[in-house]
Amino acid sequence: xxxIPNPNSLTGRLxxxxxxGMALRRLSYRELAxxxxxxxxxxxxxxxxxxxxxxxxxREFASTCDLDLEATRGMWKAAHSERHRRRDPRARPVGVExxxxxxELGVFLVDLRERKGSPPYRLMERRALAxxxxxxxxxxxxxxxxxxxxxxxxxxxxMRAFLVGCGIPPEHHGDLVRAWHRAHTRYQEDRARGxxxxxxxxxxxxxxxxxxxxxxxxxxxxxxxxPLEPFRGYQRPWxxxxxxxxxxxxxxxDWEMHRQQQTGDRDLTCRACTERPASNPSAPAPxxxxxLAEIASLAILTSGRGMAR
Length: 309
Fold this sequence. Notes:
Structural class: mainly alpha
Radius of gyration: 30 Å
Distance between the termini: 61 Å
Shape: elongated
Helix content: 55-70%
């Protein structure tokens, strides 16, 4: 056996307690694995002093070695609390009634899983499978992303399947369901405020596709363009028509917005207007009813195609 890295820590004391039980029974990890339902590597990790295994593994380890289960569970709880305190002190869970955003909800779910004994993610997947008709399936990869806060906004069904995986029956989900709705409402409000201030990045996930295209149409109108094709992103080429000279152009909307901010140009003119003032003879006169009608029809048609997508 390798020496315990930190024998004075609570995790190290638990590991030494399990090793003492093996020594009393004169068992090796392979012999212990033939008696229990766990692999020898899993049992070795439980007593290496580096990792804290789940209570199910520690309980079967201690039971096979004839150790006091109550004392072993007390040591495991103390080691679990010690490891939890070492986490980021800023990520303190709040009460379920104080959850008002997705960040607080994510911290609460991580803490809840740890308080339920940190069940393995594959075990959570199997538990949630019994309720898949109500909440859908919970792949262990999804459970891991929620349990490690790699996903910022779990859906309601994902959260409820996660709770089932933690051993919480559906009839006890009421408080957290209300907390999820509060977090979702706050997210919707923040997103609505964000569309009025400045257009977010297309990869930020702060807007739905329809809302993003609506924001882009407003931004294009402000810099003097009307779209000729559906909007695909602020950093992607976009076919538009200049509302001043009727010239067809390919632009990047982020560059055009930056150009207007740098030059202070409020005449709603494109580069072609600046370099070649003569307007396109085939286009309607700027500001005429025909030009405005054409621009309005293009914007409505483009918006409709984006919404249909």
